[in-house]
Structure formats: C-alpha cells, structure tokens
Amino acid sequence: MDCRSNGQGSKLKTETIIAMMPPSQYLDTRNGGYYVADSRIGLDVVVYAFRRGKTAEDIFRAYPSIASLAKVYGVITYILEHPQEIETYLQHEIRAFEEFKTTHPLPPEMLEPFERTRTGNTAKPG
After folding, report:
1. Fewest Cβ atoms closer than 10 Å to its Cβ: which of 5, 19, 29, 115?
2. Are 49 and 59 in contact, with CB atoms under 8 Å apart?
C-alpha cells in the first residue's frame, strides 16, 4: 500500500494532485509522489532547501545523487513557474504524513530525520 494513502479516498486525492501538476523532464512520479528525475530525492526536499535560501549549487552538493547541477536548476525553475501547484502538493504531503504518523506510530528517533528535512533544522539531536 502506498504510504501516502489511507484507503481509497486519500489515494484518489493523491492521483488528483499528481494529475494537476504539469509534467517536467526534471521530475519523475512514483509511489504517489514527485522525485527529482532518476534519483531518490523528493521534490519536497528541494523545495524546502530552496525556501531556506540554499542555492542550486548548495542543493547539488548536499544531494549529489541528483547527478547534475542543470537538473537542480530545472527543478528550481519548475518550482518557480508552478508555485500554487507546488504549495498544494506540499500541503497534501504534510497531511498524508500526519495521517501516516497517526496510523503508524513510530519512535521519535525514526521521525526525527523527516521533521529535520521539513523544518530545515540540519543539526542532529545529541
């Protein structure tokens, strides 16, 4: 089952969100979400990093599996050209994650990396 779905209703909503986003050569859709093409880096990771003021170069250095700086620039261009769709997608991802946490309780140490990505707090607790 898709971790972003909680029964058929949420899955349809995910499909609707994905259908409303224009296609891009810089993004792949799989598992109910958007990823930088040919990588395991989620679109949300790039969006949050960019919103925190990271440059394309910073993002590429942090996530070299993206494979090219041009691809990072392509994703950033997509983010800037589709702000409403991106915001809708992010809000859906946040709601889906909250649903997932409610139905699948995880220990705090497993949730911490996800929260750090979303909030931009890169310091590991310790």
Report:
1. 19
2. yes
**Domain residue limits, the chain:** 8-119
DSSP labels, the chain: --TT-SSHHHHHHHHHHHHHSPP-TTEEEETTEEEETTSS-BHHHHHHHHHTT--HHHHHHH-GGG--HHHHHHHHHHHHH-HHHHHHHHHHHHHHHHHHHHHS---HHHHHHHHHHHHT--PPP-
Q: Which residues contact 35 (CB under 8 A, 6 or more apart)?
A: 27, 28, 29, 41, 42, 43
**Quick one: pLDDT band at residue 31, thresholds 50, 70, 90?**
confident
Q: What is the pTM of this model?
A: 0.72
Report pLDDT for 94: 87
Q: Provide the pairing of β-strand 27-30 with 33-36.
A: antiparallel
